[in-house]
Amino acid sequence: MTEPSAKEEKIAIILLNLGGPDCLKAVKPFLFNLFYDPAIMALKNPLRWLAAKSISSKRAPVARKIYQKIGGKSPLLAQTRQQAAALEATLKAEEGRYYKCFIAMRYWHPFAEETVEEVKKFNPDRLVLLPLYPHYSITTVGSSLIDWQRKAQQAGFNIPYRVVKDYADEPGYIAAHVAMIREKLTQVDHPEEYRILYSAHGLPEKIIAAGDPFRLRTEASCRAIQQQLGHPDHVICFQSRVGPLTWIKPYSDDEIKRAGADGKSVIVVPISFVSEHSETLVELDMDYREIAGQAGVKDYIRVATLGCHDSYISALAKLTRDALK
Q: Which of 23, 96, 193, 203 is the 20 to 30 A CA-CA neighbour of 138?
């Protein structure tokens, strides 16, 4: 990418994402970082540290087997880099501004403190924090924003920034989902025999009860998609639950079983994920596909995550420009 001219305003876009282990040895420390986050584990230290240490040690062997199925590491960073390049390419035609994307992961490299140092060297005029989570939750967007602010302050990097907190019903984001679901529906002989399962990452019920808007924002996305699709048979459900707590329902695996009992085929839409990772490549593509076969689901189709879909990248570009107004 060309260097900015003296006349161009330099804009840094920080893409906030979860992160994932880049090798099997990284699985355990990645899990520790995840469960040590106070937005995930609401305990005071030293209890939170002890709990994170215990949970990560117990879950690491299971998680390693999951990552072994997809090449021994998470593909999330590579895909986020592709999205960053696509966003820069979309924005570069704008006169008077020079946009550069940086990536800050929450639980594995590149961490926010690493990215802060990169951004300091770039010396931007303005800064936009852009989460790759479409639906706000304190456990995802909120945690990443808090982490960025803390690490920037520690590094003495106090440039003001704008934040995109949520884009659950942004038209381009919705259009990308509609286009990808329609493509699948046109490939089947009897679309009316298919039930669309909008599968989102779950949260413990107590987090929603405390006021977290994740479920409401997920439902807003699905309503907007359905207004354009008009597909009569659909349901919102939640996957990836762990631990003894009660999580928000209905559960995705239960809905797959219900579809089988109803004699339905399913089209699974990973509504809260914009990149492929273990929850899509293993949980949806392998584990839930097996459940579907056992439950008598006639056909199991999984829609890909949005990735670098033109409408989605255009939506991110629009959100960036709007944040700078």
A: 23
Strand partners, 71: none
| Sheet with 194-201, edge to edge strand ranges | 234-239, 194-201, 265-270, 300-302
Does 108 reside within a domain?
A: no
Domain with 58, as residue range(s), is 24-68
Confidence label for 1 from pLDDT (cuts 50, 70 and 90) = low
Are 175 and 298 in the same domain? yes
Q: How far apart are CA 240 and CA 177, in angstroms?
A: 21
Say which CATH number the domain at 220 has.
3.40.50.1400
C-alpha to C-alpha distances, 199 to 32, 48, 52, 171, 281, nearest whole angstrom: 26, 30, 27, 20, 13
- Look at residue 325 and tell me if it is in a domain: no
Report the domain count for the chain. 2
Gap between the Cα atoms of 146 and 144, Å rounded: 5
3-state SS assignment for residue 51: helix
User: Looking up tokens 């359905």, which residue turns up?
Assistant: 226
Same domain, 175 and 297: yes
**303: which DSSP letter?**
P
pLDDT in tens, 4-38: 777 899 999 999 999 999 999 999 999 999 999 99
Alpha helices, DSSP H only, in 43-102? Answer: 47-68, 76-91
34 assigned to some structural domain: yes
DSSP state of 232: S
Express each pLDDT in 257-270 by its tens digit.
999 999 999 999 99
DSSP bridge pairs for 10: 98
| pTM as predicted | 0.96
